[in-house]
Structure prediction request, 547 residues.
Amino acid sequence: MKTRILDAADNAHQYPLLIKSLLLSGSRNEPDREIVYGDRTRYSYHTLQQRIRRLANVLTNAGIGAGDTVAVMDWDSHRYLEAYFAVPMIGAVLHHVNVRLSPEQIAYTMNHAEDHLVLVHDDFVAVTEHLADQLPTVRGYIQLTDQEQPVSTTLNSLGEYEALLDGATDHYDFPDFDENSIATTFYTTGTTGNPKGVYFSHRQLVLHTLNMIASLAAYEGQPLLRSDDVYMPMTPMFHVHAWGVPYAATMLGVKQVYPGRYEPNKLVKLYRDEGVTFSHGVPAVLQMILNCDEATDTDLGNWKMLTGGSAPTLGLAQQMAERGVQFFTAYGMSETCPLLTTTYLRQPQRDLPMAEQMPHRIKTGLPVGMVDLRIVDPAGNEVAHDGEAMGEVVVRAPWLTQGYYKEPEKGAELWQDGWLHTGDVGSIGPDGNLVIKDRIKDVIKTGGEWISSLALESLISQHPAVVEVAVVGIPDERWDERPYAMVVAAADSELDAATIQQHLQQFVDNGTINKWAVPQQIAIVGEIPKTSVGKINKKLIRTQVTG
Prediction:
């Protein structure tokens, strides 16, 4: 194919796509809008700009330069937001440390990323002191505190964050450089082996942000984040850039509320007191919000919630509808920055009563702009878009990680045949909506058939006494695998395995599932194991059951 390329004028500026450009419009449009940190701190976008420049000077004075790695160990805070910008804007790499990993895994990720400087909250000083001798590339630490004084430490502390900012100038001329420079890195929470490092460039993050704004703000079918909204994350900022929303919110200039450590009652109080209108979180977190004491007498009707990370059940969606929450689903993964699809409601669906909208709202949704998404069989052939044929989800988009840091073999496996392989099994309906059926490793293979653990979870969740459910496949000598269900029951209910089996029989009778899909083993438990980012830990459940 022959294309035409025109020569640019010698003095034309070749504008690189850098994170610093995301700061321009928010402070221009809404300089007095607030950045809020719990009940402790609030300041304007004008001040945000000043603090980012001060932090850049602090980092530079600490010897951090282009290509160095700065780690952050903090709860969701204004400080983390400042680091989202200041660190990559000086050409350094921001490492989002998953503070919920085991100490051994934290040490592994910090060494693998070759961290040079660590911003560490009081709550993580003790574990960092324990690991300090194992972190040879770390040259110093900056302490983050919510108290009058930081905790005393044996770490090589350069000082307390606020004191260092107070002593720094608020002038910093952020340079232009190659837009393909790495801006951020973090580590997947894999269930086998060591966590894998993914990384994203300035160009990728800018394109992801622009697309997220278009996807969440422009369409009536998914009106989640617009200029007058008030944003509060309920996804940790160490997890896939808090799904990328802080970058989008800052570019839009919306009020942002950062809650610190997640406590359901505190989150609901902040929603009410700060006028929050948009949040996002995994289904387990949203379930805790609905069930907490503070939510009992709080009108949740002004809250728009986006969920992802794992599939929401219809039972959870119905609870959202009953409370008036505007509920949407998104799909992505650590390797995809993360946004790939979102719920999109067409006009006829928006006209339905809210309860009738929920089956549409829990679908994985339509691919967002610039995402090429396909469902393929093991030979790489696309399967029919009939809502029944299943295959692996593979994708292409301009913001996907290009591999795994220092692990080219695993990166090649991720990008087999030029498509990023998600490891998810799904189907696409005639309307174009993707529905994730399961992870490849979580599909239950019984008697020659595949049973979706997610589909079973959704059906079980519709029983009114079920608060939470997880389904896994466990080995069976006759059938290869059989489904095993772990269920959290509502307080004061008398739920038992037989009641759940009877509940599922209606779906056998109407042909939704076959009789082999009904679990013969069902455990009523007080709590279901979760990963460090709040997803159901099915690997651990299988280990607990099978030993």
User: Anything to note?
Assistant: The first strand starts at residue 34 and ends at 37. The chain has a mean pLDDT of 93. Residues 169 and 498 are 68 Å apart (CA to CA). The two ends are 59 Å apart (CA to CA).
